[in-house]
Amino acid sequence: MFGGVEAFFDSSGFIPHGVCLLWRPEILALHVTADVLTGLSYYSIPIALAYFVLKRRDLVFSWVFWLFAAFILACGTTHFYSIWTLWNPDYAVEGVIKAVTAIVSLLTAIALWLLMPKALALPSPNQIAATNVALHREIEVRRQAEQRYASFFNNLAEGLFVIAVLPDGQFVFDTLNPAHARATGIDPDALRGRLVRDAVPPETADAVIERYSACVRAGEPIDYEETLDLPVGRRVWHTVLVPVRDGSGRIVQLLGSSRDITERKQLQEELVQASKLATLGTLAAGMAHEMSQPLNIIRIWAENALSRLRDGETDAGRLDKVLTLISEQTERMGKIIDHMRTFARRDGGGMEPFDPANSIRSAVELVRNQFALENITVNTDITGERCLARGRPLQLEQVILNLLSNAHDAILEWRAAKDGGDPQAGRIAVSMHCDGGHTATIVITDDGGGIDPQILPRIFDPFFTTKEVGKGSGLGLSIGYGIIDAMNGRIEADNVDHPGGGRGVRFTITLPVTRPSSREVERAHA
Amino acid sequence: MPEPTPAPVHILVAEDEPLAAMALEDFLSRRGFRVTLAQDGLEAMERHRDDPADAVITDLRMPRMDGRALIRELRSQSATLPLVVMTGFLSMDEGQDDLTSDRWKPLEILRKPVSPQVIVDTLLRLIGRPGGSA
After folding, report:
1. Are A156-260 and A351-526 the same fold in CATH?
2. What is the domain partition of chain A in residue ranges?
3. CATH topology for A351-526?
4. What is the pLDDT of residues A381-431, one digit of tens each?
5. In sequence order, what E strands does A261-411 have?
6. Selected residues 53-72 of chain B with any CB under 8 Å from a CB in chain A
7. Would you call A290 an interface residue with chain B, using a CB distance cutoff of 8 Å?
8. DSSP, res A358
9. pLDDT one-digit tens code per residue, A127-144
């Protein structure tokens, strides 16, 4: 039996399968018919599978389909071969075909079981359909949201813009809304997709890129005021930038909103100016007094020298002394004038570091003599370390002057209200203390009788005044409040009882300060 | 060149600005006045007590005792002592300030800057000596 391949396939000893069926035609016909139909059916299945695989290129596990096709093809072949063996006893060949079928079947079965978990994980058509419905719904919701936000974006009065941040750190204009386009006079289509550096004039680009970079560096929203020269002209903006990150945390966009505050700024500046002029008015008397001192000395010395000269005295040494003295006095006057000039000037400059103590000294110097004439003394007490606040020194001086002027008025009124007698000396104390380089506390106290506790909360309101008509604008304290607020400080008022009897108001200004660096000390002294 | 006055008139100058006081002293003594200087009201009262002046020139703003207090004191002692006030205070309008009222007379208010010659003329007029101006 195992005598070689030829012997293996030798079928001479066998009889055809039909013999077993006794060649009964009806049984033969039944077998042949059944095997032909089964074989044909089996053969059609791989064709269908092949067709399916070829049509559905996206099919996962397509090799399994090919395996199935091979397995079914093999099964079909066994059926056709069964018909052959009815008349030809080639049972060895039939065995080989069955063995091939067995191997392919086994492979298919193993593959199928191995694949089962993955196959189960595949979404079923029902699941996919449900997912699709959910997706459609979500798309609709998103579309509506987008419409809503687009509507916000397009109709909001606030100027909005989007800046894309490229991986190399460059900035590209993405879009800006109609309100921003109107306010700036910029055509959105002219900017879209262009590098900020190329799309706007260099000065504007420098200014805005610095802000964009600051926002990216900070990694959080920033807000600031900026003055930009735009197609509509020079405008002041209050801008907020919000960074947007992608999945990996890189900042890919900046969302910006800008409000044109030019008018508000102007109004604010005018109010500050108006109150400054009002303060200036009350200071005119003080200034005249200050000027009259050196002027008086000059006049007496000059006329004295003139008189000697006319009497024939030509002592050069004496003349030299007199002229030197006169020159020194004019210098003193020049300083007074300079001070008034800087005070009256519109304070358009930027915020700068400055020593608040200097503002206090200047303000007190301006009024001290005038107040002394009315028997009001102003004492200053500046303690603690040196420190620097950020803001405009003249504005702080203006606030302090305004408080001094209020204290002066309060003391005079307090005196007038009391019946006659010796006018009691008025006292105003100005103190400043710097602690550890964090805050400077400026306290101004008077003994002018204090403020009615009921109106105390309103004294910083614009146009609130206790002075009679024509005497006060009611703007001094509210503008002072605004100035201190702009320096990130606070100003508060309360009543105090003095140890020796007497009552007055205490204004407390708290300013954030830093310790001066050596460079700043140098500059402050320059 | 001394003024042609029979006896030196004694003038007390109360002024806290030394440069002004010195020049005034120089000018007045050259016009034949005898001058005493004081830096404030209190010192002026002391000098006047020790060596009574014929007229007093005073500033208003001074430490310790100011010009107003000094004037009150002097006037309470003498109703006729001539007083000259030098001031740089702006709003000393007629009728507005108490010093302009008649009860302080003889008193003259001179606004700074004051011409020393005007001071001399005013003094001579208040004292009642004729002429004398250089």
Report:
1. no
2. 5-121, 156-260, 264-346, 351-526
3. Heat Shock Protein 90 (3.30.565)
4. 988 788 888 888 888 888 898 899 889 888 888 887 775 545 577 899 999
5. 352-354, 376-384, 388-391
6. 60-61, 66
7. yes
8. H
9. 889 999 999 999 999 999
Q: What is the CATH number of domain A156-260?
A: 3.30.450.20
Domain boundaries, chain B: 10-127
CB contact under 8 A, B20 and A296: yes
Across the interface, whether the CB atoms of A293 and B20 are under 8 A apart is answered yes
Highest mean pLDDT among A151-160, A299-308, A516-525: A299-308
Mutate to test the interface with B, among A300, A327, A367 (most CBs of B within 10 A): A300
* Confidence bin at A244 (pLDDT 50/70/90): very high
Q: Is residue A367 within 8 Å of residue A378, measured between CB atoms?
A: yes
Q: Pick from B27, B88, B89: which is nearest to A300 by CB?
A: B27
Residues in Cβ contact with A421 at an 8 Å cutoff, skipping those fewer than 6 apart:
none
Q: pLDDT tens for residues A328-351?
A: 999 888 877 776 666 655 555 567
| Residue A425 contacts B, CB cutoff 8 Å | no
The CA distances from residue A293 to A149, A329, A374, in Å, are 70, 9, 17
Which segment of A172-176, A433-437, A444-448, B45-49 scores lowest on mean pLDDT? A433-437
How far, CA to CA in Å, does A295 sit from each of A328, A340, A374, A515, B15?
A: 11, 17, 22, 41, 15
The beta-carbon neighbor of A298 closest among B27, B111, B113 is B113
Could you please state the CATH topology (level 3) that the domain comprising A264-346 is classified under: Helix Hairpins (1.10.287)
A240 pairs with which residues across the strands? A223, A257
Strand order of the β-sheet with A171-176 is A171-176, A159-165, A251-260, A233-245, A222-230
In terms of pLDDT, which residue wins out, A441 or A468? A441
The domain B10-127 having CATH identifier 3.40.50.2300: the answer here is yes
pLDDT-derived band at A281 (thresholds 50, 70, 90) equals low
CA distance B121 to B119: 5
Tokens of A414: 């307090």
